[in-house]
User: Fold this.
Amino acid sequence: MGWLTRIKDSLLNKIKKKIPKKDIESVEKKRKEDYLKKKEILKKETIKIEKSPSKKIIKSDAPIEIKKKKSFFSLFKKKDVSKEVEDPEKKGGWFQKLKSGLFKSSEKITQGVKKIFVNKKLDIETLNSLEELLIMSDLGPIAAEKLTAELANEKFDKNVEEEEVRNFLAKKIEDTLIDIAKPLTFENLKKPYIILVVGVNGTGKTTTIGKLANQYSKEGKKIMIAACDTFRAAAVEQLNIWAERSNAEFIKGKEGCDAAGLAYEAVEKAKSKKIDILFIDTAGRVQNKIELMEELAKIIRVMKKLEPEAPHHCLLTLDATTGQNAINQVEIFKEMAEVTGLIITKLDGSAKGGILLSLAEKFGLPVHAIGVGEKIEDLQSFEAQEFAKGLMGLEN
Ligand SMILES: Nc1nc2c(ncn2[C@@H]2O[C@H](COP(=O)(O)OP(=O)(O)OP(=O)(O)O)[C@@H](O)[C@H]2O)c(=O)[nH]1
Ligand SMILES: [Mg+2]
Assistant:
């Protein structure tokens, strides 16, 4: 990416020559101060280890309504977008659903870009403001610098419309994400296909398993779910409800039993019952709890005794609302569990949808799906173009 930075720098140098030295110094001083402030915020977020958010145990088959959205949306939109959230099929399909899910993120970026580009030329000031906005939207410093440099390269010193900027960014974001947007694939020969789901407390492991199980069950696949989060009875009960909803077989052990032993038993049963996909739910673990992380390694070791290639997928769920902390989580879990792909959850509750760009730049791990709500159908396959447009508040 060095050449992009060089293009940007050379353009900035050209313009600097036209500006009195004193002005440059004061602009640069302010820029430096702002950067230090932003850096400090990012650092704090990275250090913060997300504690388990309040959990909801689903008690009935009724989908959970996201009532809070109604009042939040109505602050910004004249039309009643909350209806779209409740019934995407009737109100413009799944892209509208994705757009609604990404509303908080796209609103932050759209409003920011609108503010920056009011009858303005693309100059140093607008470029810096845009770069800061992108960093604050969790795209990460690398992607933010790259995008602004590319914009500078094409449009420097020209008048630009805010929508033009959003279209430009959407295209570049799509180009970055296209390689990591990969749906889960299954080789027919493997039965059962074993999917281990791991992640920090409350990131959406159990909910995601429920949503995935439902999708694949509807496709006619035989599903089994193993409750290897054996610490809490409530966790087992929550998973059992998801299994019933998706017509999946369910396997659980006694409360507090050995999670690895249960995983072994689940693989054995899934084999004998000719199950297509076996999901293994695991207890949430904070990255710094060594014994819990070791337990995860043990689950994998034990499963390999029966099925050397297990797990065929190891999915890490990341809560988008945690922003840059997600980077930390990937680093740790990758070491302990050979993560093969990511599921980004809670994009509907986050203004930090840009985290996907940070993750793509840093790890290049496939993103198989995104969670945009709590309901069973609120898991969407991750499509680069739709996501980029949704993030920039554009129509598909
Ligand atoms: N808004 C929203 N909420 C979600 C999403 N995914 C999960 N949740 C909610 O997040 C909370 C935690 O989800 P769980 O599936 O229990 O998370 P977990 O990782 O299994 O949690 P532990 O087992 O405690 O580690 C629940 O209230 C879910 O309904 C999503 O995409 N959007
Ligand atoms: Mg769970």
In short: The chain has a mean pLDDT of 80. The CA atoms of residues 180 and 372 lie 18 Å apart.
